């Protein structure tokens, strides 16, 4: 399996999109590109499972490397483990449904899809690269398209939101850059993830570099108190933009926290785990309570994202195999769920031209498909068994409970409490939107989802249900990667 | 004799063009439309010429030295002048005194060539003057505008002042070491006596004026604003590049024994230059002033890379200037096309540019992203290698400051990008037809911005030259 294809197809699609002559061509080329990418991700998944089945014990599969800047020891080194495979799969799901949801975009169609594929390119490259320089490159590639997507196609106070997002994310990547350069010099001039993981890094250096990297990636994944770009950015972005932001971009941070910060600097991770747990528990509760007060559907999902993504960081902070597996599951689950949520909100907004919960009501009667999707995603969000949210959060809690001291227990209980709050705000919002009589006369002859919206929603729902009903395959995919990280942490004592 | 021709080939070609222009001026006049392509062609030839027959050596008793690295640096400057002559051809065609303008510009270029190759403080000083005085005349080339004269006056005064300080530094160096040859100086400077340090400080201050390092930057914005854009882009790219190149030779070779002194100095100057340049750039309304402050901030990054004191520092600096050339010239090119067409130079005028001029908008966006160091543009690689070089001394706070400054700079670059794409303007800039030489210049810059970072042998090639 040639991993470079995962980067080449979005790149090719982006270039083709630029060459298209009219909007229809742009759309179909994008659709073809994203379908090809989804197929490729599935091929990768099966190839990966096959390799594992025949007993390949390598840490990273399908490794490839060629030299970029030999003098600085920078190589384009790619390779995947189960975690990366899951992430590429998630990205492909969100990309395809994002393309479908944006089908009717009229303003600068070509530029819109170009930026969407550039963003996807950054995400794919980030998930598969094993060289810190290349990883950082792709991380930054994905920042500016977000700015332009929000600034041009967004709504509300979009310039403010776009600026805030771009500057906060770039601030995060500045910290990451310093951390990476620190690793580069500590490890005697290597950017290679696997090489650095074999080098013993002194505790003094770990104490400095770990917070830089963790906070840097934490900004991307809404680590409290660096989460403030999330609500503004998500709510101002166009539908596909929000789906990407919450579904993929925030996962870049979580993946980086785990793969770069925790994996390379286990002693640092151990030392700072208390801070991580406290901050993520605050983030979970704060996000949940802040959501209670929101009236705008997009803000509801944005703040609830802060809360849900907190579980990812909590799982990483707990430093047990189960918790880390759970946190990766939460990334996949939340990526699908939140993408669907934003897609549905976008569909509702396109029809009703409002996102305010109290202005809607009784939409079930006119928009049965869309509201059903909203129901499913709401239930997933509040952790109904059978859907992906339950599996992921449950795994995090089980992993957290493996610690038997007071501090970890209290943190876990605090985090668990957020589920109750989640149930309150989700059920309240959905009830107000979907149930009851139709409040607004204009809503009574709205048209239900079109074919592209249906496909987009069904793809994401399929993912959520697949994880919810049969979580085993995802667990098998993720836990070996988590074990390797835990082995490094276990080796400290 | 053959060696003389081979070693000085670039200089000789430039001299030949200058003489040609002088004859043109004396004899029958040629229209600008015919003269400009001839000049562009010869500049291109000189660039191609510098690829072949490269030899290391010195002539005139070590006054003039040439190494492959120097030839490469010269060809960067030559390329920059070629691109300027393409991008600003709209303005150049209209000017009445095209021949004079190029005589001045090429004299300055000749001065820079000689300066890069100089092996002696005397030669260095003379060529530095040759590289400075014509630029002041060029700054005054918008004859109808008073601001242009004001800018030229500021430039000549500050240049004279800095030359005085520089000369004082040179005399102190001579006093301390008894020599003015680069090779002897590097052996005689011990790093022990305080007179040497004092001499170095004066000498460096003189150079710092030319490179507009904070706190010697005050002339920059006014001169940039007043001058015609062809001069401004020459000042900001070619002039700065040349001074940065000679600074590499001086710091790394001549004052090598004082490395500890100049490391601290460069770090301090780099930090304040970045911060002041960035903070002032935020408030600017005029695009030329804006680019002036942004280029001050860029100099801060160059100093950061230079501070490393090893091969990586030289390579990163030269590499960055190559990329900076494409990015900054593209930005100035867009400003020139617009100013030339409708006289608008304010950032507010750029609002809604995307609606009318798609190509110019993308070009400016690409250039600004490259200046900000956003991948996949080449600026990302340039900045990152500079910071990597700076990090080699292991100072976390220094690279943190540098990295955070990249974020500040992003803020003001995004301000312009935001204005282009989202700004609403009742009276937007009309659709501008781009003539083919300008288009070619833009394409060169665009290709440079997009591909330089990915053509990885460029970095390795520069590194191989530094050996």
What is the N-to-C succession of helices and strands of chain B? HHHEEHHHHHHHHHHHHHHHHHH
As residue ranges, the low-confidence spans of chain A are none
Roughly how much helix do the residues of chain A carry, as a percent range? over 70%
Fraction in beta strands of chain A: under 5%
Q: What class do helices, strands and sheet pairing of chain A give?
A: mainly alpha
Tally the helices of chain B: what do you get? 21
Give, in spatial order, the strands making up the sheet with the most strands of chain A: 1-2
Quaternary state, please? heterodimer
**How much β-strand is present in the residues of chain B?**
under 5%
> What pair of chains forms the biggest interface?
A-B, 34 and 32 residues
Task: Name the strands of the widest sheet of chain B in spatial order.
Answer: 1-2
Indicate the structural class of chain B. Answer: mainly alpha
Which value, in Å, is the CA radius of gyration of chain B? 21 Å
Mean pLDDT of chain A: 87
**Main sheet specs of chain A:** 2 strands, antiparallel
Average residue pLDDT of chain B? 88
Distance between the termini of chain B: 27 Å
Number of strands of chain B: 2
Instruction: Compute the separation of the termini of chain A in Å.
Output: 38 Å
Quick recap:
The complex is a heterodimer of chains A (493) and B (467). Chain A is mainly α and 493 residues long.
């Amino acid at each position: 399996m040639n991993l470079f294809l995962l980067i080449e197809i979005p790149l090719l699609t982006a270039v083709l999109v630029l060459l298209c002559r009219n909007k229809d061509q742009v759309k179909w080329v994008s659709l073809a590109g994203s379908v090809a990418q989804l197929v490729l991700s599935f091929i990768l998944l099966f190839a990966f499972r096959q390799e594992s089945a025949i007993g390949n014990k390598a840490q990273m599969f399908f490794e490839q490397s060629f030299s970029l800047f030999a003098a600085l020891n920078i190589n384009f080194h790619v390779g995947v483990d189960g975690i990366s495979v899951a992430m590429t799969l998630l990205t492909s799901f969100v990309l395809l449904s994002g393309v479908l949801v944006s089908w009717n975009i009229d303003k600068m169609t070509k530029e819109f899809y170009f930026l969407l594929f550039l963003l996807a390119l950054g995400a794919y490259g980030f998930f598969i690269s094993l060289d810190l320089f290349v990883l950082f490159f792709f991380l930054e590639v994905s920042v500016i398209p977000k700015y332009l997507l929000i600034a041009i196609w967004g709504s509300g106070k979009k310039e403010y939101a776009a600026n805030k997002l771009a500057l906060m994310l770039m601030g995060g990547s500045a910290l990451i850059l310093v951390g990476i350069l620190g690793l580069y010099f500590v490890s005697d001039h290597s950017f290679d993830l696997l090489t650095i993981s074999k080098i013993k890094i002194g505790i003094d250096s770990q104490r400095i570099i770990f917070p830089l990297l963790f906070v840097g990636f934490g900004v991307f994944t809404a680590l409290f108190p660096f989460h403030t770009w999330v609500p503004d950015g998500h709510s101002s972005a166009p539908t596909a933009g929000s789906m990407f932001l919450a579904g993929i971009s925030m996962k870049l941070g979580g993946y980086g926290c785990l793969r770069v910060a925790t994996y390379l600097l286990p002693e640092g991770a151990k030392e700072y785990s208390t801070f991580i747990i406290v901050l993520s528990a605050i983030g979970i509760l704060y996000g949940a309570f802040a959501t209670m007060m929101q009236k705008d559907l997009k803000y509801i999902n944005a703040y609830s994202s802060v809360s849900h993504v907190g579980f990812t960081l909590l799982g990483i902070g707990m430093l047990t195999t189960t918790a880390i597996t759970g946190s990766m599951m939460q990334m996949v689950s939340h990526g699908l769920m939140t993408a669907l949520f934003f897609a549905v909100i976008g569909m509702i907004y396109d029809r009703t031209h409002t996102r305010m919960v109290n202005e809607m009501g009784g939409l079930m009667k006119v928009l049965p498909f869309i509201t059903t999707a909203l129901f499913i995603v709401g239930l997933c969000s509040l952790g109904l068994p059978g859907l992906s949210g339950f599996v992921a959060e449950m795994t995090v809690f089980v992993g957290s409970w493996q610690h038997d001291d007071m501090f970890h227990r209290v943190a876990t209980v605090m985090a668990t409490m957020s589920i109750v709050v989640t149930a309150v705000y989700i059920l309240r919002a959905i009830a107000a939107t979907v149930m009851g009589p139709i409040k607004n006369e204009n809503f009574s002859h709205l048209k239900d989802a079109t074919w592209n919206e249906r496909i987009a929603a069904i793809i994401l729902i399929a993912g959520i249900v697949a994880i919810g009903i049969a979580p085993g395959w995802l667990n098998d995919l993720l836990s070996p990667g988590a074990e390797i990280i835990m082995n490094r942490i276990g080796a400290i004592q | 004799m053959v060696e003389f021709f081979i070693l000085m080939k670039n200089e000789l070609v430039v001299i030949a063009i200058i003489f040609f222009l002088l004859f043109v001026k004396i004899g029958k006049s040629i229209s600008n439309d015919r003269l400009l392509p001839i000049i562009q062609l010869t500049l291109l030839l000189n660039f191609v010429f510098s690829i072949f027959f490269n030899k290391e050596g010195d002539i005139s008793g070590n006054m003039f030295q040439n190494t492959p690295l120097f030839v490469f640096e010269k060809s960067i400057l030559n390329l920059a002048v070629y691109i300027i002559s393409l991008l600003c051809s709209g303005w150049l065609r209209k000017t009445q005194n095209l021949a004079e303008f190029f005589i001045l510009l090429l004299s300055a270029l000749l001065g820079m060539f000689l300066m890069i190759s100089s092996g002696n403080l005397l030669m260095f000083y003379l060529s530095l003057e040759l590289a400075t005085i014509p630029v002041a005349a060029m700054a005054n080339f918008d004859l109808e505008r008073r601001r242009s004269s004001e800018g030229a006056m500021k430039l000549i005064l500050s240049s004279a002042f800095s030359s005085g300080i520089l000369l004082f530094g040179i005399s102190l160096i001579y006093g301390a070491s008894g020599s003015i040859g680069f090779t002897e100086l590097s052996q005689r400077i011990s790093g022990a006596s305080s007179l040497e340090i004092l001499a170095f400080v004066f000498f460096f201050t003189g150079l710092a004026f030319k490179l507009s390092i904070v706190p010697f930057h005050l002339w920059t914005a006014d001169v940039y604003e007043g001058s015609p854009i062809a001069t401004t882009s020459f000042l900001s790219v070619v002039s700065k590049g040349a001074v940065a190149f000679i600074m590499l030779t001086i710091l790394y070779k001549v004052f090598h024994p004082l490395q500890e002194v100049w490391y601290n100095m460069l770090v301090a100057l780099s930090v304040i230059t970045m911060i002041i340049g960035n903070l002032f750039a935020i408030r600017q309304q005029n695009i030329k002033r804006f680019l002036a402050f942004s280029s001050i901030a860029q100099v801060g990054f160059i100093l950061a890379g230079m501070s490393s004191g090893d091969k990586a520092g030289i390579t990163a600096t030269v590499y960055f200037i190559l990329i900076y050339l494409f990015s900054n010239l593209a930005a100035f090119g867009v400003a020139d096309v617009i100013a030339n067409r409708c006289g608008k130079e304010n950032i507010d005028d750029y609002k809604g540019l995307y609606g009318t001029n798609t190509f110019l908008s993308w070009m400016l966006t690409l250039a600004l992203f490259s200046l900000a160091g956003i991948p996949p543009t080449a600026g990302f690689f340039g900045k990152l290698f500079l910071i990597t070089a700076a990090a080699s001394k292991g100072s976390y706070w220094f690279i943190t400051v540098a990295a955070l400054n990249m974020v500040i700079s992003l803020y003001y670059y995004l301000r312009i990008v935001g204005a282009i794409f989202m700004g609403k303007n009742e009276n937007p800039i009309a659709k501008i037809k781009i003539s083919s030489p300008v288009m070619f210049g833009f394409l060169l810059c665009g290709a440079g911005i997009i591909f330089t970072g990915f053509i990885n042998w460029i970095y390795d090639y520069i590194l191989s030259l530094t050996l």
